[in-house]
């Protein structure tokens, strides 16, 4: 459940909300100078409905903010939000009052597909997408997620894209594990958004090193940044009780303790542990989880002692790493550092990859410490990729208002190629599979004069084909060409070259110079009229390869590998809906599958060689079929969709509020 807060105020009692931090942070001030505010754009929000009585989202019907929609839970009733999630999403997009969204004058279509924000059948999401198409939505925001590919949702999203609707999906909150994005975030054509921190002083990140080995730690809410790194000997302090620390040499140490207590029902808050550690002379404290996984904790909460203020930094760590540190303590020194970094990937944000053939997520935006509209005229501090996605939906509305003639894929290019880099605590950029191209920058996208398509790509190379070529369509928005500079940021063993084939076609060629098999990534950077455009890529370099031949309604496959192989499993994915068909092949047995519609098909082969598995990839585009219907068993889908947000409710200064 969310924590309902009324407002945050400064010393002059002027009302401020944290939308006034995240929204300008992603660059909305530039469009607003030109009077671009979302006027004339309709954004469909498929969610728990919208509280259209909220003063910042006021009005139901033609003259209101919420100009239409549909209640799929109680048909015949308006799509009023009784949960709060949809209202929070709507506020980020289009709040126009005490809080100001990214596109405050945009109109909303509210489609209620869930009552409680916990679950909904995939059929309702599909019906909502179809209704949004019928209602002429310009943009669809889906802050929902499922834990696997859903072919029916995928196809519905593609139908919206075919109708020139820009579709934005939340990546989900199942990070930091890789491969944790489900439908519709897996959809190839939609823009999938992960979450970064926000432009607040509470956007702290931390580093911990023990014997030069880095560990993942999260600052607790209430910490302040450290001016210098803190170093000290590691000491294990049990649960951090006074009696446990009195006989230990804790002075100037970094104390590590376990979360909770060994006494049932004892409320040993983090603030109590911090007080005990500081009183004993510790410089900092690490709290490891008492159950598997990492957690977020708060030092400042409603049960603290009067006038309590944290004196030493406190961070949390997962149980496995905490136990590893304890088991290896032998007078070891540790170094801890806390610092402000708004462009840092939120730990909960779901990561890719979802496929060897395309990149997800494609972009990230602020999704932590967001104070947005809440039911009953309130405002709610909350976190999740559900609140990152509407930043991108609002940004698309601004670009569409400025350039109403642009196609959805051109808007996508402007947003994805004009991003800011997202770096980890050590200054290294996160991988493309984690953050896509980078963090949303609306100001750069608004000023951009160059559309580059595609805005990212996956290249396939093998030991018998070491060259990857890619053509990019270039479009100048002002019709002028003053030339551009191009650089390559990638592995040194890849030789890069590029040239204009004609005025609008850029041909890029990459040649692999060394047999470093595996997945590699990089970025092509183009500078044009003062703006740098970024085109991320992933290159798969495999030892083996697979060839594809189409004969009428069948695809035939042949495996090539320099070593002797015994068996291969071949998976063929229809790019239109994510449907996967599989077949097997041996050196003595050919393999084929039937195809039923014109589409691009992605082929992934897993080749068995002396007990090991080697991958090979290829793609084929089919355009010559007389399409036919395939027979499918219609198995009802269980209710498996969950709201991809609100994993975290933010307090006035912090993040999910685990106190003990």
From TrEMBL:
Domain of life: Archaea
Record domain Peptidase S8/S53: where: 38-421
Catalytic site positions: 47, 85, 386
Transmembrane segments: 640-657
GO terms assigned for molecular function: serine-type endopeptidase activity
Statement: the UniProt record of this protein carries the keyword Membrane: yes
Example GO BP: proteolysis
Name of this protein: Peptidase S8 and S53 subtilisin kexin sedolisin
